[in-house]
Amino acid sequence: MSGPSINPAPRTPGQLALELHRARNSNLEIEVSASEITNLTALPADEAYKIEGNKLVFASLDERNRLTATEIFAGFTDDGATGYLVTADSLMQDELLHPVHAAARLVVLCGVNRDVLLDAAAVIQSSGGKRPYGLATMIGEALAELPAISANSLSAFCAALQQSYDGSMIASPFFERLVPVLIARSDLRAEVLEICALAPNSTSSDLHRAVLFALGCVDTPSVLHRVSTGVRGNYPVTREVCMWMVGRLCARRDLTGEQVREIDGLLEPYLADADNELHSVACQNVVYGLPDYQFCHETWRRLIAARDMAAVKALASGLFTISRSLEPLETILPLVNDCLSLGTEEDHELGRVDHVLCLLLGKSAVEQVIGWFTRWIREHGSGVFCDSDFVKLFPQTVHWLMGEPDTFGKLITSCLLDDERNPAAAAGGLLSHAVAHDKPGVSLDMSAVDLLDAQGLFFLCRRILGFVLQERQLLSLTLSFLRTSNAKERTFELVRDALVNEIGYDYPEPTLGTLATYRQSCADQGEAALLDEIVRVIGENEASLSALPVANELMPPARLSRSFAVARAKAMDRAMRDARNESVWAQLVHRVPVKGGTGFFRMVDGAYPAVTKMTTQSVTTALPRRDVLDPVGQVHRRLIFQTTRRGSK
Prior knowledge:
- With 649 residues, this protein is an all-alpha fold.
- The chain has a domain at 13-72.
- It has helices spanning 13-22, 34-42, 61-74, 81-93, 102-110, 116-125, 133-143, 151-165, 173-184, 186-198, 205-218, 220-231, 236-250, 257-272, 279-289, 297-305, 309-317, 319-323, 333-337, 347-362, 366-380, 395-402, 405-417, 421-436, 446-449, 454-467, 471-479, 487-490, 492-506, 508-520, 525-547, 558-582, 584-588, 625-629, 631-642, and strands at 29-31, 49-52, 55-58, 599-600, 612-613.
- The strands form two sheets. A three-stranded antiparallel sheet has the order 1-3-2.
- Helix 8 (151-165) packs across helix 10 (186-198), helix 21 (366-380) crosses helix 23 and helix 29 (492-506) crosses helix 30.
- It is extended and about 100 Å long.
- 35% of the residues are buried.
- Residues 1-6 have low confidence and may be disordered.
- InterPro entries: ARM-type_fold.
């Protein structure tokens, strides 16, 4: 005996929308049964959805959200402040990546009988410091459709929101949606302005900013009058907010001459007083006006000349934005030169300068960029042998330069010919960085080398030997001397001495291999004879060294060597283990032992993509012979090369 079959009740459009919503996707169609199609067809016509075959298709995600919210609201019984907001927040968790949200629709429906903003403020205050990002987003989305908004309720909600984030939230989605509401509702805007003026508070500063910005969109003279009064007032919070609004006005391009003069008067006292808490904000406001407005021009130029770091940092931060307004781009070079005082600690600001330098290189301003880069290195370089840490501050510029061998050679030549130590040391670091990125050897800039006299050529060769470490770069730079004008009389002997006595001794095998390759493409008979002689001399020297007997008395005992190797391996293993124990990353990850493999994979968007194959990567470098045989003498030799001066013998 079988029981009666169970036929589920046909689902309504709201139930179908809610089912799609709970699936956490933005699909607009869902399969329906024949009985459901019959039931839906009998309903009054609704533009929110339509029937296509055995599927119900919603007109848009917004319509799906409206039906979802209506379905939940119809069965909602909790009339407490937290009930509907908790339900809305739960809806929000399922649709965080959606452009529009059913949670906002539910808030609008509940807002007919409740003060949503006051309820949301109470929820935030009772959340125990939890950041209510989802709540703020859905309230902001619902603002435009709430039937009535009280200025006091809005103030309470904004204060609770800003306090929960312990900082400004003016760039959040909530305030982005609040500004259009304040623009459209002049009565609400007036009430909020009055509240902010009567009771200035640090937790309501974001609301004050939003209402001033909204007023500025509809009435520039009125907002300028208000901020003028606020900047000159006695309340620090109001001064800060009004100075922020001055910056928004400075960024406009439709100010009258009278308004520009008024802003000049507001900024001048704060620019002149470097110890004032709003000095840096005033500097930023001046930069917002560039290049169209030269606010407080004389005072600003004095600050830049005095290398006031607040002014220089503000200029560097706005440099890229300014560059988009300049045509041709090369006219920004004076402003780039004003940023030369930025040191290695100002990495964020130097990143903006780096971007503009890269744009200038693309506009063929190569000489100017190389000149700026050399001057910056001369002033802020570390002077440490082969130090390349500064490359991290200019990643785009260095990447572009390394991709252009001729331009890179100009920069290296300029740095090596500089009389100061910092540029030459930086040239060595740049060349090491190029080798680490598998770039070919760099050649000297012949337009600069051709202008050198004998002492200048000798100076440049010694700088190369003193500051360049890798054999690839040493050989490439030295061989490029052969391409200078009248090389037989000017550089043949210099190249011979450098290759035989210095580079060929420290790197015999790479030198012989490079000379053999270079000899194959050599068309000049005098140059070919020189290379053959160099190869012969280096070969004879190597044969003489190889013929020497092994001095066993200088070799360490085998037992001592083994003991030293074992002790060193244990010390390294212990150091690595201690480092892993102290590493924050090692404490966060879960270590999974594996035997080995040829690839790896990871989960992306709930699925496993194709396996990424692992390939072997290796970098080899030759150690200079003298670093092994005579390390102290090698340091002294490099020091002599590095400290050589023009005209010295």
